Amino acid sequence: MAPKCLVVLVILASVFVQNCLSRYDNPESEEYELNLERDDQTTAYYQRQWYNRRDGNYLNNYRPTLAARRPQGGSSSSNVFSVVRYGARGDGQTDDTQAFGKAWQQACSSGGNGAAATFMVPKNGVFLVKPVTFQGPCTSSVTVKIMGTIIASKNAGDFEKDRKYWLLFDNVNNVNVNGGGTIDGNGANWWRNSCKINPSKPCTKAPTAVTFNECKNINVENLAIQNAQQMHLTFMKCENVVASNLMVTSPGHSPNTDGIHVSGTQTISITNSVIKTGDDCISIVSGSSSVKATDITCGPGHGISIGSLGADNSEAHVSDVMVNRATISGTMNGVRIKTWQGGSGIARNIVFQNIVMNNVSNPIIIDQNYCDHQKCHQENSAVRIQNVMYSNIKGTSASDVAIKFDCSKVFGCHGIIMNNVNLVSYDRSDKTEAACDNVGLIYHGMVGPKC
């Protein structure tokens, strides 16, 4: 290459470094994140201009994507509230709880007339946080952008005030939580002290890692939630929820670590997520309706469960649930409905379809006589179960009984449809069977094993 060309390249590289790369501060700094936000907005602007010139339809298709990322308008740099700005160190040792609280208060109260704000947890940082409540209602819609790692204190004494929650979003509407970061419950100490692991220990509650309570219009996506003290992600009394592209993990031996727990929630979609825990991958309990779980990878764990319902003679209602396209591997159960004796209410209009089972101990199970004691008396009431369809379910069972319907003598299970179900032995040398009591069945297509 000619010397003149080398000189020109060196000059251009120097200009680029001074005018472009020099804009970016340390990755943990607030200014770095604000520059990323400005670049993101600039890129979006030019993409809109290009689509508008090329084809109006492209622009129309592009706008919903922007709206999903920044509801009701974009967040300018002045509306980005980084926890670093409020004193968070992100070194994994300093208590950053107060900084998180201050940043949230500012983001939550920053707007009006539908203005949007961003609560930011920068990348390349590990932020140690004790129990904190993100309290609503807010004057603006908020995007919670978690790009770094939030890790819980492992000291149980830090949870003395309230052992139920670690990160609690309470009465918050119109919130997007995303960013590609990690929420780590640091739960090993809690598991070791569980009565399920160590029977000499008292049975006590442990915190849920992330809880949304009485929230509306919630979108949680593109996050890893791991090692929860107990449950990983819970939606209680919420409406209009989307949870997608989540990686939810904890060791298979970790007790009561449900992946996603749905309670008293209406209209929720759980999609494109991998859940590997020590308890239910997804659990759906009373008061929930219009629940969809699609494209789920589950296992290890206890499978996908509706229930338990009707504990302590309570009334329970669950309806309009669809689990579609799931792969369940190495779990205790596959798809399960579990109700206590003595309860009341109904679980109805439930569909499990397009599911692959790999070495699952109880692939299909309804237990309407659940009891956690050795001897349980037959009760005169039960949570009714009706209109349940199992369609296009195939795979292998780790036990001889691949299908079990243990339904109540009082009410029984009604309108149970089996359509194209084929469950064979994982061992291949044994045959599978079905155990069925007090159940009204309708068969379509090839079904095996049959009652």
Structure overview:
This protein has a 17-stranded parallel β-sheet that branches. The longest helix is centred in the first third of the chain and has 25 residues, at 30-54. The chain has 451 residues and is α/β, with parallel strands linked by helices. It has a domain at 280-371 and 381-451: Pectate Lyase C-like. The chain has helices at 3-19, 30-54, 56-69, 97-108, 188-192, and strands at 80-82, 91-95, 116-121, 126-129, 132-135, 141-146, 149-152, 165-170, 173-178, 182-184, 208-213, 216-226, 233-236, 239-249, 260-263, 266-276, 282-284, 288-298, 304-309, 315-329, 333-340, 344-360, 362-370, 384-397, 401-406, 413-425, 433-437, 439-448.
Brief synopsis:
The chain has helices spanning 3-19, 30-54, 56-69, 97-108, 188-192, and strands spanning 80-82, 91-95, 116-121, 126-129, 132-135, 141-146, 149-152, 165-170, 173-178, 182-184, 208-213, 216-226, 233-236, 239-249, 260-263, 266-276, 282-284, 288-298, 304-309, 315-329, 333-340, 344-360, 362-370, 384-397, 401-406, 413-425, 433-437, 439-448. It is α/β, with parallel strands linked by helices and 451 residues long. The protein has a domain at 280-371 and 381-451: Single-stranded right-handed beta-helix, Pectin lyase-like (Pectate Lyase C-like, 3 Solenoid).
Write the topology of this structure.
Elements: H1 3-19, H2 30-54, H3 56-69, E1 80-82, E2 91-95, H4 97-108, E3 116-121, E4 126-129, E5 132-135, E6 141-146, E7 149-152, E8 165-170, E9 173-178, E10 182-184, H5 188-192, E11 208-213, E12 216-226, E13 233-236, E14 239-249, E15 260-263, E16 266-276, E17 282-284, E18 288-298, E19 304-309, E20 315-329, E21 333-340, E22 344-360, E23 362-370, E24 384-397, E25 401-406, E26 413-425, E27 433-437, E28 439-448
Parallel strand pairs: 1-3, 2-4, 3-6, 4-7, 5-8, 6-9, 7-10, 8-11, 9-12, 10-12, 11-13, 12-14, 13-15, 14-16, 15-17, 16-18, 17-19, 18-20, 19-21, 20-22, 21-23, 22-24, 23-25, 24-26, 25-27, 26-28
Helix pairs in contact: 2-3
Active site: 302
Protein name: endo-polygalacturonase
Keywords: Cell wall, Cell wall biogenesis/degradation, Glycosidase, Hydrolase, Secreted, Signal
